[in-house]
Amino acid sequence: MQSLRQPKSSKNARGTVNCDNTTMHLLQANDFVADAIRKEMVERNILLINVVSSAGSGKTTLMQQTIQRLAGKINIAVLVGDLETERDADRIRAVGGNALQIVTGGICHLEAQMIWQAMKSLHLDGVDLLFVENVGNLVCPASFDLGEDYRVTLIATTEGDDKPKKYPRMFLTSEMMLVSKCDLLPYLPFSVDAVVADARDINPNIEVLTISSTSGEGLDAWCDWLLARVEEKKAEVAALA
Question: Which of 109, 131, 150, 235 could form a disulfide with 141 if both were Cys (CB 3.0 to 4.6 A apart)?
């Protein structure tokens, strides 16, 4: 019996051309802007940390707690990425944080050019630490360098402990993994040992802290880590002067 499905034409429509895959070109353009951001962060003596995770892992609550705990010690600013609304930036400003929302309009990640544009509208004079709170997504943000000094990935206990092997690039490109919402461990089938083992199988050098923004567990260690990184950055910049 003759098939009713017709073969698809391999010919181009009139007026069209074959194009190379543009993904690599876009990433190269992104890296160019990321390098410019990195240079400006050195000139301004600011530590830049890109905070990534799935949606709902507790990034914004962590930003609130961090700002409150480090008030009077260092000056912090936050660029917040979301598809819509200013809700997360409003939450950060509600605790006295210097925050600016980047509305991506449907894009599932932040790109370096978005950070570059937003930096021009954020007061950065005297800032020691700039957080970028990325869009909640463990896939796309892993491919985009934002000029950060460190990439920090949150993995919430509510997500399950199998995420590092499912989304390896994110954990491979991160310096720190925060296991968040650890106050819920007694109620969830989540193994900290398993998630750490998987993450270090992918990236043997990744640092790990277990935290809870609700109970406060691990937040002192997190803040100490941040203060140490800020001091290291300042020392490196001073050595270049």
Answer: 109
